[in-house]
């Protein structure tokens, strides 16, 4: 069976991340979230409560962040979905 995973990097997204997770979690095997170490809201708590695997990181630039995220989830699934925390799937 094909394994679909999702991966995201976020910062202070407590206001919208639950809606994204609600749309995504029924369709994926696992969700990986990298949380910017400057996050001050409940983003990490919300992700952990939804069963996400969470890792804190220090943001330097988008290229390095994407490469770190891709490396982190490499070989964990057959397909990956990467969407912003203010987006949903239907």
Q: How would you summarize what this structure contains?
A:
By secondary structure, this protein is of the alpha/beta class.
Radius of gyration over C-alpha positions, nearest whole angstrom: 12 Å
- Into which percentage range does the β-strand content fall? 15-25%
Contiguous helical run count = 3
**Spans where pLDDT lies below 50 across 5 or more residues:** none
Tell me roughly what share of residues is in helical segments: 25-40%
Q: Gap between N and C termini, in Å?
A: 22 Å
Instruction: Specify the biggest β-sheet.
Output: 4 strands, parallel
Topology summary:
Layout: E1 4-10, H1 17-24, E2 30-36, H2 43-49, E3 53-57, H3 62-73, E4 79-81
Parallel strand pairs: 1-2, 1-4, 2-3
Task: Give an account of the 3D structure.
The protein has 3 helices and 4 strands; from the N terminus they run E-H-E-H-E-H-E. The model has no long low-confidence stretch (mean pLDDT about 90). The chain is of the alpha/beta class and about 90 residues long. A 4-stranded parallel β-sheet has the order 3-2-1-4, with helices on both faces.
């Amino acid at each position: 069976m094909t394994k679909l995973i999702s991966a995201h990097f976020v910062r202070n997204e407590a206001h919208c991340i639950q809606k994204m997770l609600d749309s995504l979690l029924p369709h994926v095997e696992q969700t990986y979230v990298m949380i910017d170490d400057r996050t001050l809201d409940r983003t990490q708590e919300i992700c952990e409560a939804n069963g996400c695997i969470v890792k804190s990181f220090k943001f330097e630039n988008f290229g390095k962040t994407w490469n770190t995220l891709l490396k982190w989830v490499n070989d964990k699934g057959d397909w990956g979905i990467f969407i912003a925390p203010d987006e949903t799937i239907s």
